[in-house]
Amino acid sequence: VQLVESGGGSVQAGGSLKLSCTASGFSFDDRDMGWFRQAPGKEREGVAVIYTGSGSAHYADSVQGRFTITQDSAKRTVYLQMRTLKPEDTAMYYCVTGGIRLLVKTYRVWGQGTQVTFS
């Protein structure tokens, strides 16, 4: 079971980034997959989750309207398009699966993370 993230980097206020997470070793179908983040000195928090069966998505209030989560089942990949980035979006972003909605303690599978930093 493996989740591999990519796409992080350094951005300026108002900028955009697109994160990718490619899954392997398990069925991509009918599960919650998504993104959590952890800023320095803060707890991990849910950002966005998509149910791969229906494409239904859930977002944290802090990113609603700015971030969009999508999936490409053929590529076994989940994306997080981030727009209008703010300094408070600076964090390590983790791809997750095996849990429920944005409930951090329910997730059993985590990627290594990709860093998003404000310049």
Walkthrough of the structure:
The chain has strands at 2-6, 9-11, 17-24, 32-38, 45-51, 57-59, 67-72, 77-82, 91-97, 109-110, 114-118. It has 119 residues and is mainly β. The strands form two sheets. Strands 2, 4, 5, 6, 9, 10 and 11 form a seven-stranded mixed beta sheet that branches. Strands 1-3-8-7 form a four-stranded antiparallel beta sheet, with no helix packed on it. The mean pLDDT is 95.
Short summary of the structure?
This protein has strands at 2-6, 9-11, 17-24, 32-38, 45-51, 57-59, 67-72, 77-82, 91-97, 109-110, 114-118. The chain has 119 residues and is mainly β. The strands form two sheets. Strands 2, 4, 5, 6, 9, 10 and 11 form a seven-stranded mixed sheet that branches.
Following the backbone from N to C, one meets helices and strands in this order, namely EEEEEEEEEEE
Largest sheet: 7 strands, mixed
- Helices, by number, come to 0
Beta fraction? over 45%
Q: What is the number of strand segments?
A: 11
Relative helix content: under 10%
Structural class based on helices, strands and sheet pairing: mainly beta
Distance between the termini: 34 Å
Catalogue the unreliable spans: none
Topology:
Layout: E1 2-6, E2 9-11, E3 17-24, E4 32-38, E5 45-51, E6 57-59, E7 67-72, E8 77-82, E9 91-97, E10 109-110, E11 114-118
Parallel strand pairs: 2-11
Antiparallel strand pairs: 1-3, 3-8, 4-5, 4-9, 5-6, 7-8, 9-10, 9-11
Give keywords:
119 residues, mainly beta, 7-stranded mixed beta sheet, globular
